Automatic annotation (TrEMBL):
<keyword id="KW-0694">RNA-binding</keyword>
<dbReference type="InterPro" id="IPR001678">
    <property type="entry name" value="MeTrfase_RsmB-F_NOP2_dom"/>
</dbReference>
<dbReference type="Pfam" id="PF22458">
    <property type="entry name" value="RsmF-B_ferredox"/>
</dbReference>
<feature type="binding site">
    <location>
        <position position="301"/>
    </location>
    <ligand>
        <name>S-adenosyl-L-methionine</name>
    </ligand>
</feature>
<dbReference type="GO" id="GO:0003723">
    <property type="term" value="F:RNA binding"/>
</dbReference>
<dbReference type="GO" id="GO:0001510">
    <property type="term" value="P:RNA methylation"/>
</dbReference>
<dbReference type="GO" id="GO:0008173">
    <property type="term" value="F:RNA methyltransferase activity"/>
</dbReference>
<comment type="similarity">
    <text>Belongs to the class I-like SAM-binding methyltransferase superfamily. RsmB/NOP family.</text>
</comment>
<dbReference type="InterPro" id="IPR029063">
    <property type="entry name" value="SAM-dependent_MTases_sf"/>
</dbReference>
<dbReference type="InterPro" id="IPR049560">
    <property type="entry name" value="MeTrfase_RsmB-F_NOP2_cat"/>
</dbReference>
<keyword id="KW-0808">Transferase</keyword>
<feature type="domain" description="SAM-dependent MTase RsmB/NOP-type">
    <location>
        <begin position="143"/>
        <end position="401"/>
    </location>
</feature>
<dbReference type="InterPro" id="IPR023267">
    <property type="entry name" value="RCMT"/>
</dbReference>
<keyword id="KW-0949">S-adenosyl-L-methionine</keyword>
<dbReference type="InterPro" id="IPR054728">
    <property type="entry name" value="RsmB-like_ferredoxin"/>
</dbReference>
<protein>
    <submittedName>
        <fullName>RNA methyltransferase</fullName>
    </submittedName>
</protein>
<keyword id="KW-0489">Methyltransferase</keyword>
Amino acid sequence: MKYHRVLVEAIVFALQQIFNENRQADKVIEQVLKSNKKWGSRDRAFIAENTYEIVRWWRLLKFVANINCVRVEEEALFWQIFAAWRVIQGDKLPEWAEFKTINAKEVLARNEEAKGIRKIRESVPDWIDAIGEQELGENWEAELHAMNFQAPVVLRTNTLKTNKLDLKKSFREIGIETETLPSVQDALVLPKRANVFSTELFKKGLFEVQDAGSQLIAEYLDVQAGMRVIDACAGAGGKTLHLATLMQNKGRVIAMDVEDYKLQELQRRAKRNGIGNVEIKLIEAKTIKRLKESADRLLLDVPCSGLGVLRRNPDAKWKLKKDFLEKIKQTQAEIITNYSKMLKHGGKMVYATCSILPSESEEQVQKFITQNPEYQLIEEKRTSPAKDGFDGFYMALIERK
């Protein structure tokens, strides 16, 4: 494989930004790709894919490159990590000065050694490996392995404007193939990655990019047209838009969050989608109290560790800390206890996480139900990276008696 120095330099720069400046991988890659308009699609794909994969396999690559420091700061070491990655992919390295210290045989030998140590082979911090095994037991290894594969691009059809089969046909007409997912009503999957955001189909609001597991959550809430629905942790609104669509743009969806900029982005997305029944509301001191017993349906997609979506956010496993996990569990308990008061008697709510850990999911719901007997668990569901190929989501449907 022929390497172009400027592309490798871009990857090294991106890795430094992610690991040394603690920036989000997707934001860094977006910035890097915009920095040179002369790069073609193959160049951009080379930068993005190699950066993401090196981030994903960071611990393994440090091991095979024999880099023992906890924090990599020297630029030369980033070049060595890139070289180690390409060696274990079967490439012959160019004779560049930055690669002179790399011994391909030693790299491959250490890669074989790593296969016997799960936390290195699967490239995960010690504490995540330990807590995963503690909570998931024999299922942990399969889930961990599955989360090291690149996540597919999944689209959700905006059924206010089109249907799945017509959207599939429209993509084919512009040279983009898609596949249906029988288990997810309005989903299309891209077998080959493509920049769908630049298409007129996206600009017209005919679809959103949303993982299959995430798409199941809004459906789980059992909304109907004309209802008053609250999405209490809306963020930028992927599930809010889905709820509004399922309600056929009738009734009212109140999208709430503590971050105003996310709600502003939600408004822009709603406009593109042709959605007019969404109201945004910034969560302030008395917001929850004022909305007491006002919702027919309530979605609590609570903040969590994100350990179910590591396929999409591989840098998260290096930035997540054990003490944050403990704090977020407390936040989850506070949200379900306090926000559930916005639900009417006879109404239903969904508590959801994008975590594979029971301590953030099933155990939180069980504790809440035990302490609040006027609520009853109707059913609960999980999506599994290992079994379904979806991101790892948990959802519980709860009724207020």
